[in-house]
Structures are given as C-alpha cells and as structure tokens.
C-alpha cells in the first residue's frame, strides 16, 4: 500500500513529431488541434479531472507555443470582455486555470525513460502519474482515476494495457500478465518493447498512461540505453516488476477497454477529430448529417 497520495502529473512533450511533418516543422505536435482544442489540453484536463493539479511538462526546443497556450493573455481577454464575448473568454481562460504548471527542458533526446528521469527533482519521493500527449482517452472514461486507485491500494507502479490486433503488437510495448482473482487489475510478469509478432507474449499493448513509484528514478539512473539507443521506460518497469514491494517494486496493470486515440498517427488523429466533433452538442448534429451525406455520396461515386 502506498504511503502517499498521487498528486503530481508529468507530461513528456519534448518529441519532434516527425510523423506529422511538415505540419510540425514549426508547431509542436501536442498543439495540433483536435476540433478546436490542442491535443495536449485534452490530456492535461484528464489529469486535472483525476485530481492532479501539480503538473510538470518536460519540454524541448520549439515548444514555446505550448507554454504560451497555458499562460494568460491579458490583452485578448480584455478585448473579449469589452465585446461581452463570454464563450470565447471562458475558452481561452480554461487552459490557464487547470492548476500549477511547471516546465523543465529534457535536453538530450534520450528517450521516454530519460524524460521521466528529468522529473525526479520536482516529483521527489512520492508516486506520480505520467501521461503521454499522443494518447487521447475518451472524456467519459475513468482510466487514470482507476489506475490511481489501484496504486494507492496496492502500491508499486501501475501501467495501462489495451488489447490490440496481434499483427499490430510490434508497434507497442507488450505485457505478459497474470489475473488476480477478485480484483480489477492484473499482475505484470514481464514486458517486451516492440517485440516481433512471433515473440510477443500477448496482444496486450502498453498505452500512454502510467502511475509510477518513485523507485523508478533510481532504476532509470542505472538503466542502460536500449532500443534506438534510448533509455526505455519499459526496461525500468521490467526491473521494478521483479523488485520487492518494500523497495517500491511490483507492477500491476489496468486493462483499458474504452475509447483511445493515438494522435501521433494520422489515421487515428482524423478519427479522433471526427468522433469528438460528432459528440459535440454545438457541432454534432449538423456535422454528423453532413458526414453521412458525404460518405453516401462517396459510395454512389464508385
């Protein structure tokens, strides 16, 4: 059982976003709009909704617009106030009111494990959440809340898993797990980073939500670079899975079966825009009607 409540969230946002070039040549990938909000705002609001208000972004070069998005803009606010445009005023103030946001540079791009390690000075000796900006979780899903509840009950570290088609598993970290009778989590036995399909122990993929024991920092400090010459968080989690609970070890997982979008992938990004727009009260009815007509016309054209 954890002796600390989970209060802090870390967002590794230093990546270059090369899969979305040329759009990300001058814009951080996390700032790509999903309908009318940047992807990172959905992720930050997910953390805040789970009760986390101490937020650390691990950034890199060319991320200034990301920091500006979560900052005040007094001149624009004053203009909107003068025009009595309450809706837009609330929209631009929304990201500035999420909590205490701190920033630190990753420096050398040495992988996700290195980005998490950079958070050590801010996090200290308490469990914390890590949210990857590429993964959007459905607004009504309770994944992060469920993971925090498991960590506070069981201790150690908690990861999120999702079933994927077997042929797609080589794009993910993959977990071998054991069911825990009567519980809503599973025990993680081993993890493999991007295995060949034939070597994968399951079709359970690691997705971008973690609740980590502070013991991960000591492990990351001695973790040698792995795939891509980067410090892999998966390698550190594999060691934590074998460590005694009294040393902060043990890894459990919540298997997620809800809506998740990989906004770092072009097709999944487009699906996220379409689904979220369809669910909006202000856009949904008209957009859905148009979308149905458009799809029907494409079918007739064939």
Automatic annotation (TrEMBL):
<keyword id="KW-0808">Transferase</keyword>
<feature type="domain" description="Nucleotidyl transferase">
    <location>
        <begin position="13"/>
        <end position="277"/>
    </location>
</feature>
<comment type="similarity">
    <text>Belongs to the UDPGP type 2 family.</text>
</comment>
<protein>
    <recommendedName>
        <fullName>UTP--glucose-1-phosphate uridylyltransferase</fullName>
        <ecNumber>2.7.7.9</ecNumber>
    </recommendedName>
</protein>
<dbReference type="InterPro" id="IPR029044">
    <property type="entry name" value="Nucleotide-diphossugar_trans"/>
</dbReference>
<keyword id="KW-0548">Nucleotidyltransferase</keyword>
<dbReference type="InterPro" id="IPR005771">
    <property type="entry name" value="GalU_uridylyltTrfase_bac/arc"/>
</dbReference>
<dbReference type="Pfam" id="PF00483">
    <property type="entry name" value="NTP_transferase"/>
</dbReference>
<dbReference type="InterPro" id="IPR005835">
    <property type="entry name" value="NTP_transferase_dom"/>
</dbReference>
<dbReference type="GO" id="GO:0003983">
    <property type="term" value="F:UTP:glucose-1-phosphate uridylyltransferase activity"/>
</dbReference>
<dbReference type="GO" id="GO:0006011">
    <property type="term" value="P:UDP-alpha-D-glucose metabolic process"/>
</dbReference>
């Amino acid at each position: 059982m954890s002796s600390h409540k989970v209060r802090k969230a870390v967002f590794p946002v230093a990546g270059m976003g090369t899969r979305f070039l040329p759009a990300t040549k001058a814009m951080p990938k996390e700032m790509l709009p999903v309908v009318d909000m940047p992807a990172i705002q959905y992720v930050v609001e997910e953390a805040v909704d789970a009760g986390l208000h101490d937020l650390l972004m691990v950034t890199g070069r060319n991320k200034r617009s990301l920091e500006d998005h979560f900052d005040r803009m007094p001149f624009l606010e004053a203009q909107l106030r003068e025009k009595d445009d309450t809706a837009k005023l609330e929209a631009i103030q929304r990201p500035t009111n999420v909590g205490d946001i701190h920033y630190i540079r990753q420096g050398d791009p040495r992988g996700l494990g290195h980005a998490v390690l950079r958070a050590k000075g801010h996090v200290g000796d308490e469990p914390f959440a890590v949210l990857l900006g590429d993964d959007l979780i459905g607004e009504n899903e309770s994944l992060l809340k469920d993971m925090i509840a498991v960590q506070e009950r069981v201790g150690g570290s908690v990861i999120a898993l999702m079933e994927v088609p077997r042929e797609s598993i080589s794009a993910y970290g993959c977990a071998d797990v054991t069911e825990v009778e009567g519980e809503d989590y599973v025990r993680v036995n081993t993890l493999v980073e991007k295995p060949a399909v034939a070597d994968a122990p399951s079709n359970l993929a690691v997705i971008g939500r973690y609740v980590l024991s502070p013991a991960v920092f000591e492990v990351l400090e001695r973790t040698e670079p792995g795939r891509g010459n980067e410090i892999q968080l998966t390698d550190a989690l594999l060691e934590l899975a074998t460590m005694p609970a009294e040393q902060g070890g043990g890894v459990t997982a919540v298997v997620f079966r809800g809506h998740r979008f990989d906004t770092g992938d072009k097709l999944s990004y487009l699906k996220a825009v379409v689904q979220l727009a369809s669910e909006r009260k202000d856009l949904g009815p008209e957009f859905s009607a148009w979308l149905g007509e458009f799809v029907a016309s494409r079918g007739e054209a064939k």
